[in-house]
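LOG
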Amino acid sequence: MLLAVGRRPRLAALYAEVEQVRGDSFCAGWRITDLLRHAKICGAPDPGVVCLDDGPEFTALEDQVRAALRNKPRKEPNLARGSGRPMCDGCS
């Protein structure tokens, strides 16, 4: 997952935005925002190729996601909520 976040930073940020607006987690037990914080603080593997997603297709996807976020959620965001266990101890 750290490699994927490094390769698609704009997509990871969009996932984090969905989490924040909906209050749901990307995966049971942890959030994409935790993964991004871990990558920033503790480091992440060199992603090699980085896909900047700066084309019109990705911008259209962002627009569609943000429009959907203005709608009422289709479900309560409790199915994917986890305990929020820490990913690491700060990589001491």
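LOG (cont.) second protein
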Amino acid sequence: MTITETVLPVSPLPGRRRWVALGVLMLPVLLVAVDNTVLNFALPQISETLRPTGTQLLWVIDSYPLVLAGLLVPMGAAADRFGRRRLLLLGSAGFAVVSVAAAYAPSAAALVAARAMLGFFGAMLMPSTLSLLRHVFADRQERRTAIAIWAAAFGGGAALGPVVGGFLLEHFWWGSVFLLAAVVLAPLLVLGPLFLPESADPQARGVDPLSVLAVLTGMLALVLGIKTFAKDGVSLLAVVTFAVGVVVLTAFVRRQARVRHPMIELSLFRQGGFSGAVLINLLSVVALVGFLFFASQDLQLVHGLAPMRASLVLLPGVLGMIVAGLVAARLARRVRPVVIVAGGMLLSAGGYLLVAVGSADLMLLGAAFAMVAVGIGAAETLSNDLILSLVPAEKAGAASAISETAYEVGAVLGTAVLGGLLTSAYARAVVVPPGVAPGEAAAARETLGGAVEVARGLPAEQGVALLTSAQEAFASGVWLTALIGALLVMTAAGIALATLRRAR
């Protein structure tokens, strides 16, 4: 079946105001994307200051995208009913306030709670941005360019997180990465009412509370099961939580098929191009976030680079990702999407394989990230364009929520699966020298950051032995993680070849 596009009404804004509106919409996109990865470079400082366990450290990262992913679909439906601009502004205000609380969190548990609240308000931001973009840009070519900029902002923002974090951590304490939200969202709260049109679905009905509870519970259980399996292997807790997640999410899908006004239009998934594009988004973000999880720690804790200098190693990849998205939008006029998307995924797989088979050289790591980022930047631009092209304008909120859910579930799985496997491999391989106190030994086995901190307080010989063992254990985990990452993006390439062959 050839993919076609929906005929849209005339844009409510004149030309210049449309592009100003796009600039305003980029603010929350950049913020949410940066927030997915900005903590990666702050992990060593958080480990030293708050002394979290390895599981807590993963939850510091995961609690935000997990809650966000669970609520994106309900918030997309709420935006359709109550107004997309209204929900965007409400979410922005809440996000800014909670970010200040996160910056001054006194403990790891408090930081996890603050990150979860950021996910709640973040879920109000993302569906509104993509659906408002669809409403503002009625012209197909203009919309493709706008989506390319949107995708580049999201993907580039995820890659830019470590760069921004590196700069802030070079000059301030770890909490400064959260205060960034107030700076970014202040212009949005001022300019949003002036340049963004209000839009809503006149046919939208109330949000189903049972569906909201089911999708949130199912996502929590599913990811907890994956995290537990990645860390501890097959266990009763991993099997039970994973099974609960699958059962609850299955019940959610069945309920969507029965209720009169579902939160997800299941009929969209009958079109292979739509389903394929959503899966490609998910797997590509898993790959990107998983790479950044180990790369940020490797650069600082193995190579010993300061945060800012470490972030500069990844800067070419960040720029390449942005350029790739814009170039892909132009190439799509002449080259079939399947060629660009599958080619981008294979390029990303090559970057992961470069890490798996290469040395721990800084140039190699930077080149590998550039390959991963460029491939993902090109692929995501077109996959998002295809997702929106299949959806009537009045259902833009629900469709964008599905697209964003794929992004955020990918961010969760990037740390839950790849991060969990890396943490598990490290814990199994690290050797703590005799004579280290039990509490310090446990901290050293939990994370590489914990081992580095413990080694600083040990006698020289013990410290060197622990640090050497920890770095070698981390390297062995990176090798395994890179191989799995390569398999994931090669799977995405296969999905593109199978589902996007007739896409135009």
